[in-house]
Automatic annotation (TrEMBL), chain A:
The lineage of its organism: Bacteria, Pseudomonadati, Pseudomonadota, Alphaproteobacteria, Rhodobacterales. The chain crosses the membrane at residues 41-66, 114-134, 141-156, 162-181, 193-212, 232-260, 267-291, 311-335, 347-371, 383-403, 484-504. The keyword Transmembrane helix applies. Its main location: membrane. It is a multi-pass membrane protein. This is Inner membrane amino-acid ABC transporter permease protein YhdY.
Automatic annotation (TrEMBL), chain B:
GO terms for molecular function: ABC-type amino acid transporter activity; ATP binding; ATP hydrolysis activity. It comes from Nereida ignava. Belongs to the ABC transporter superfamily. The gene is glnQ_2. Keywords: ATP-binding, Nucleotide-binding, Transport. The lineage of its organism: Bacteria, Pseudomonadati, Pseudomonadota, Alphaproteobacteria, Rhodobacterales. This is Glutamine transport ATP-binding protein GlnQ.
Length: 519, 255
């Protein structure tokens, strides 16, 4: 009705007048400086002091930088060159040239294969585009993003091409299983849920039993002095083992019954069942199938072991994988924490609070030493994967809390409107709640992501040779570059800054794009 | 227009509420509510703030759970069984005091969302339906804007259109005009009157007494969680029975 008025009432303007340019005397650098730098005497004094400090800083750093030596074979060589040129005390960037490959890839990655991680990095930039700029690029391109992890894995670790291909195949089988269960009638699905619940309960009990047995065995083998922690842990686990051994079958049946009973629209049960099948397929199917195909059609790259990964590449691997895993996991945890099913809520709360209460370093040590015992002994999980699990768990707990804030900021009316239209929980969450909650949470999530990315350098304390590990170990302790300091750390700071600043700029851009109207 | 309130009502029962009780913790919000609504009825519910009006109509689409008694909507008994609740919600449209549009979706997307996901209507068809109802509430030209760019009255009309896109058989309104500036109330009421003329079964919580006289075939007065009085609008306004109704009417009509 207000718009019909707009046509009939003469004095109502229905378009905005464009802003007119300001008068000339009010613009220009002089005016800007007078207003912003010299608006009063306090301000003027501060401006002068600040300029002096900046000038002093630049005058100190610039010669160091400008006279830096880029071509030398060792730090001695470097110093001689500078002494000859009369610029002693300048930077010795030659270390960056000399150890460029090591800084980027670590010192064990085969030199002939550097093209593989480099290509993986280029592809990362390309394949991330469809996801980062989803609103401007065709949706079909997301296939490239989805396939990227498999390609990158194969490029960086090498080995048989059939491993990632078979993983893809098994994922497809799992999707088929999911669709199959979705299509079952309610009572059949309930039956499936019960059986799967019982099996996974039994499986869980058995794994726990094996792990405890292993720990007990190890703690029995270490001398009393250094093994006190593991002895205690072993003892605790042994008790757990005895219990789980006695009870894993009834426990499984109990879990099965609980899942059967908590059955509502079946969404949760379907997901649990599907994940369970996925786990079983991967553990028992992947190795034999891919080996079989490879023996017929061998397509292989030189395999590189996880312990040979290093340098900035390692930080990029950990950073990218952990960020992209911890956001969805954080969403799940945040939603779980809001759930009104007590079991799910409890698990999420305990997980989040426990992880947040423990320093990341501790978790990394756990990853280094202990996590292996939680998995079946024969599936020796490699170190990078263990570290990924820990960092992901750590940042997912933080992201979950950020997202919980976003969920809490949504007015109750949004939930009610979604409910009143007949949307079910999954639809309401996916279409109404999450898009808004995630949008609110962007700054917080980015904060965690940037922190996580920098925290990947902590793996140097568990003797992995990421960029900081490389600097502290093989570079600073080599005879050639002993005690070189500023140049290498400055380089490390620079490469981290580039990535972190890009993430921050991207997130600000994204926030502007998602701005819909004024509210 | 005044004939609307005399419009015929079918004998078919749309909503039947029987001895329904609800508590918030230990607070008894609704007491022994009995109410039968026939198809095509237009009911206005009024009463002092906090008397349980919102709670009552929110029980009808199970936004709130009741603890005792039965509610039957369109022949389906409301229980905590999830399947029934979703069916009923897709048959019963609801408009809220604060519109509750989805701010991250355009007007058109707001209207097509539920038909596409709940009714599985193909996208193109859902858009045609949405445009049809947006024309009906007289804002088709705003289809591509976001809710935050519309005035309150326009937003409420979108909210009505959004509910209508689900082709509901019953509409619930919870004070649809009380968050609006006076000059926008009329445009929303006009839309609701049009809906009534088409024979929609409506339950409106509102204090717009002019609207009640014109449209309702029954006015219900609630106080302290009970239905105190119900009558045809003429009778209700001219000849209120209970003292509480008289007091309430004198307060809202008095000045
Ligand atoms: N979620 C809730 N928890 C506890 N009390 C509530 C809740 N919602 C409403 N109430 C109380 O129930 C009573 C009825 O509320 P409501 O139905 O909103 O009243 P009306 O719509 O008639 O103003 C009020 O006293 C209110 O304080
Ligand atoms: Mg109310």
């Amino acid at each position: 009705m207000s718009d019909t008025n707009a046509q009939s009432v003469a004095f109502v303007r229905n378009s905005e007048i464009p802003a007119s340019p300001p008068p000339l005397g009010e613009t220009g650098p002089v005016k800007w400086m007078r207003e912003n730098l010299f608006s009063g005497w306090v301000n003027s004094v501060m401006t002068v002091i600040a300029f002096l400090l900046i000038a002093r800083f630049i005058m100190g750093v610039f010669p160091w930088f400008w006279n830096g030596v880029w071509d030398a074979s060792s730090i001695k060589d470097c110093r001689n060159i500078m002494a000859d040129a009369g610029t002693a005390g300048s930077a010795c960037f030659a270390v960056l040239v000399d150890r460029w490959d090591h800084l980027l890839f670590g010192f064990k990655y085969p030199a002939t294969e550097y093209w593989r991680p480099t290509l993986a990095f280029v592809l990362l930039v390309v394949c991330a585009m469809p996801a980062l700029f989803a609103m401007y690029l065709p949706r079909k391109l997301l296939i490239a993003t989805a396939l990227y992890p498999f390609v990158a894995y194969w490029l960086i670790w090498g080995g048989s091409l059939w491993v990632p291909v078979v993983i893809l195949g098994l994922l497809a089988v799992t999707a088929a299983i999911y669709l199959f269960i979705e299509g079952l009638s309610v009572s059949l699905r309930q039956a499936v849920a019960g059986i799967v619940g019982a099996l996974s309960g039994i499986g869980l009990g058995y794994l726990l039993y094996l792990g405890a047995q292993e720990l007990w065995f190890i703690s029995g083998n270490v001398s009393a002095g250094e093994g006190i922690v593991s002895t205690v842990a072993g003892f605790v686990f042994m008790i757990a083992a005895i219990f789980t051994y006695a009870f894993f079958i009834p426990m499984g049946i109990f879990v099965g019954y609980a899942i059967y009973n908590s059955y509502e629209d079946g969404g949760l049960v379907t997901i649990v069942t599907t994940l369970f099948s996925l786990y079983a397929l991967m553990v028992y199917g992947l190795g034999p199938i891919s080996a079989a195909i490879n023996s017929v059609v061998p397509i292989e790259l030189e395999a590189v072991a996880s312990r040979d990964m290093g340098g900035y590449m390692l930080c990029m691997i950990l950073g990218t994988v952990c960020v992209s895993l911890s956001i969805p996991l954080g969403v799940v945890l945040a939603l779980g924490r809001q759930s009104n099913m007590p079991l799910i809520k409890g698990v999420c709360v305990v997980f989040i609070e426990f992880i947040r209460g423990v320093p990341l370093i501790t978790l990394l040590f756990v990853a280094n030493v202990m996590l292996a015992y939680f998995f079946p002994p024969e599936s020796s999980i490699d170190l990078i994967l263990r570290v990924i699990i820990m960092i992901t768990a750590f940042s997912a707990a933080y992201i979950a809390e950020v997202i919980r804030g976003g969920l809490a900021a949504l007015p109750k009316g949004q939930y009610e409107a979604a409910d009143s239209l007949g949307l079910n929980y999954t639809q309401a969450t996916r279409l109404i709640i999450l898009p808004q909650a995630l949008k609110i949470s962007i700054p917080g999530i980015v904060n965690v992501a940037v922190g996580l990315f920098k925290d990947t350098t902590l793996v140097s304390v568990i003797s992995m040779f990421d960029i900081v590990g490389m600097i502290r170990g093989p570079i600073q302790q080599s005879t050639d570059w002993i005690s070189i300091y500023w140049e290498v750390y400055l380089f490390a700071a620079a490469v981290f800054f580039v990535v972190c600043y890009s993430i921050s700029q991207y997130s600000q851009w994204l926030e502007r794009q998602l701005q819909t109207g004024h509210r | 227009m005044s004939q609307i309130s005399q419009m015929k009502v079918s004998d078919e029962v749309a909503i039947e509420i029987n001895q329904m009780n609800k508590w918030y913790g230990s607070f008894h919000v609704l007491r022994d509510i009995d109410l039968t609504v026939n198809r095509g009825e237009r009911i206005v519910i009024c009463g002092p703030s906090g008397s349980g009006k919102s709670t009552l109509i929110r029980c009808i689409n199970a936004l709130e759970e009741h603890q005792k008694g039965t509610i039957t909507v369109d022949g389906t008994l409301l229980s905590s069984d999830l399947k029934n609740i979703d069916t009923i919600r897709s048959e019963v449209g609801m408009c809220f005091q604060h519109f509750n549009l989805f701010p991250h979706l355009t007007i058109l997307e707001n209207c097509t969302l539920a038909p596409i996901w709940v009714r599985k209507t193909p996208k193109k068809e859902a858009e045609e339906i949405a445009m049809h109802f947006l024309e009906k509430v007289k804002i088709p030209e705003q289809a591509d804007k976001y809710p935050g760019q519309l005035s309150g009255g326009q937003q409420q009309r979108v909210a009505i259109a959004r509910s209508l896109c689900m082709k509901p058989r019953i509409m619930l309104f919870d004070e649809p005009t009380s968050a609006l500036d006076p000059e926008m109330i009329a445009e929303v009421l006009d839309t609701m009157i049009e809906l009534a003329e088409e024979g929609m079964t409506m339950l409106c919580v509102t204090h717009e007494m002019g609207f009640a006289r014109k449209v309702a075939n029954r006015v219900i007065f609630m106080d302290a969680g009970q239905i105190v009085e119900q009558n045809e609008p003429e009778q209700f306004f001219e000849n209120p029975q209970s003292d509480r109704t008289k007091l309430f009417l004198s307060q809202i009509l008095g000045h």
